[in-house]
């Protein structure tokens, strides 16, 4: 199984999701069974480490995002990944427009898939610290549900 998380910049929300899911997979002993990656629809932060506010908030909860680097999503991702999870509706429509006709990758909105209180992970980039905590809260909840799904699909 291969899972790709997608947001706009690939420096806040999707690297958080990548780091949280990797952590949970390691804890569950499934790290070598499921491949996880993240990407952005935009190209402004290609090659950059996650935003320092994202890294610090994640670090406080035990997730290390320091080695992750930004990249832009590409059409080849639709052949490589089984499940592509978008952080918000704008990311999702961008992915739908990129998706090759012959792709069998499943595309969904991360939070909506698990019927959490919100459908979208709000973009924290231009806001305060609380936004980064909310991103982690939502992503931790959705990742628990995703882990249950992945265990069932293995
Ligand atoms: P992300 O947050 O999509 O969660 O990585 C953003 C990062 C950068 C920008 C926007 C959102 N930006 O405009 O540079």
Automatic annotation (TrEMBL):
* Domain of life, source organism: Bacteria
Query: Which EC class does it fall in?
Result: hydrolase
Identify the Pfam families for this entry. Answer: LMWPc
Its EC number is 3.1.3.48
UniProt-listed InterPro entries: LMW_PTPase, Ptyr_pPase, Ptyr_pPase_sf, Tyr_phospatase_low_mol_wt
Domain annotation Phosphotyrosine protein phosphatase I: ranges? 1-149
Entry annotation: catalytic residues: 7 (nucleophile), 13 (nucleophile), 123 (proton donor)
| UniProtKB keywords | Hydrolase, Protein phosphatase
Q: List GO molecular-function terms, semicolon-separated.
A: protein tyrosine phosphatase activity
Return the similarity comment. Belongs to the low molecular weight phosphotyrosine protein phosphatase family.
Q: What is this protein called?
A: protein-tyrosine-phosphatase
């Amino acid at each position: 199984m291969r899972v790709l998380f997608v947001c706009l910049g690939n420096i806040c929300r999707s690297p958080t999701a990548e780091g949280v899911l990797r952590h949970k997979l390691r804890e569950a002993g499934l790290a070598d069974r499921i491949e996880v990656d993240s990407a952005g629809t935009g190209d402004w932060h290609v090659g950059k480490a996650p935003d320092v506010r994202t890294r610090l908030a994640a670090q406080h909860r035990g997730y290390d995002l320091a080695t992750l680097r930004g990249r832009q999503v590409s059409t080849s991702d639709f052949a490589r990944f089984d499940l592509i999870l978008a952080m918000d509706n704008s990311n999702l429509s961008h992915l739908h427009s990129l998706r090759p006709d012959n792709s069998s990758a499943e595309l969904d909105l991360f939070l909506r898939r698990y019927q959490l209180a919100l459908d979208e992970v709000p973009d924290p980039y231009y806001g305060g610290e609380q936004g980064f905590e909310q991103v982690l809260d939502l992503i931790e909840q959705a990742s628990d549900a995703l882990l249950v799904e992945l265990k069932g699909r293995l």
